[in-house]
Each structure stands twice: as structure tokens, then as C-alpha cells.
Design goal:
nine-stranded mixed β-sheet, disordered C terminus, alpha+beta, about 180 residues, about 40% strand, 4 helices
């Protein structure tokens, strides 16, 4: 049985690494998919160990940002590690700021990359079922918690017009 997503408050943090712009429809076609190559370059070039100013815990993130519209439009994906804000990087390194606020968290276990694919299917099915929370389409992220575990954080709008600070959450996550 798959656990229901939990609502968590996340502090803003920064991630630096490699980035591509894509859309879900492109990722469904092997001829236009970009994410597999992004992650392949990230690990083959040891970015998880070589980004200057990276966090000490070594966690890897996949950050979704720059949404054109919703899940059907284009968006940016950055494969990277948490870094200190304002750090300077060489050309080719992308830095993205993850928005603080409420996130629905979908925890997944299994074999890569299928567990991530299955996790995103859960996300899409959850929001297609008209849940209490609506997606924000600001930043979302995958936090890799081991070789067979990932947590997918989906930014949501505060319920009932409350501010993000008033949202009832299951806990606070400081990702950096």
C-alpha cells in the first residue's frame, strides 16, 4: 500500500548543478526526452561531489522551476546539490532558489528510475482527483534520500486563502 502524501512546510534553499528545459510530453518520447541525459551527465561528471559550496550532507536534488504554465507547459529541471545562497559558479552551472512554503510530499521506494516515474504518476493522479490543495507551479523538487528512496515535494497553494505561515503542516523541513 502506498502512503498518502504529507503536508510539510519547507524553508527556502538553493541548489546548483546542471539544467535543461523540457516538457512532460517531450519526456514521453525517447527521441525528445532530456531528463535521462541530464542525470547521466550529472553522475558521470561527478557533479554531486564537485559543486563548490555544496552542503555537507551530500543530498542530491532534482528541482523543477520556471514553469511556463502548468504540468502541460515547459519547465526547467536542475539536477544538483544544496549550496549556500549567493555562491559564485563557473559557466555551465545553474543555480535555482527553491521557494519556501507548503509542499505535499510523496515518498517513494524502489528501483531507479522506475520509482521516480511511478512517483510522478502518483502526483498527477492525486491532483487530477481534485484534492484540497492546488499546485503552485513555482518550484517542486525531488530529494534523493538513498539509492532506492526519493521524496517528491510539490509546492501547493495555502488552503482556504491562508498565508503559507498559517498552513497546518506535518513538520518543517530545512533542505539545506
Amino acid at each position: 500500500m502506498t502512503a498518502a502524501p504529507t503536508l510539510e512546510q519547507v524553508d527556502s534553499f538553493h541548489v546548483a548543478g546542471l539544467a535543461v528545459r523540457t516538457r512532460n510530453s517531450d519526456e514521453m518520447n525517447p527521441a525528445t526526452a532530456r531528463l535521462g541525459d541530464l542525470w547521466g551527465r550529472f553522475f558521470s561528471q561527478s557533479w554531486e561531489r564537485s559543486v563548490p559550496g555544496r552542503g555537507d550532507d551530500g543530498r542530491v536534488f532534482g528541482v523543477y522551476s520556471g514553469y511556463e504554465s502548468d504540468e502541460h507547459g515547459a519547465f526547467d529541471v536542475t539536477a544538483g546539490v544544496a549550496v549556500a545562497p549567493g555562491a559564485a559558479f563557473a559557466d555551465g552551472v545553474t543555480q535555482v532558489s527553491v521557494q519556501g512554503g507548503p509542499y505535499l510530499v510523496f515518498r517513494c521506494e524502489g528501483t531507479m528510475p522506475q520509482m521516480v516515474i511511478d512517483g510522478w504518476v502518483r502526483v498527477w493522479q492525486h491532483f487530477a482527483a481534485a484534492p484540497a490543495h492546488r499546485r503552485r507551479f513555482g518550484t517542486d523538487f525531488e530529494q534523493y534520500e538513498g539509492p532506492d528512496q526519493v521524496a517528491i515535494y510539490i509546492g501547493v497553494l495555502p488552503a482556504n486563502g491562508a498565508s503559507a505561515d498559517d498552513t497546518d503542516t506535518a513538520g518543517t523541513t530545512a533542505a539545506a
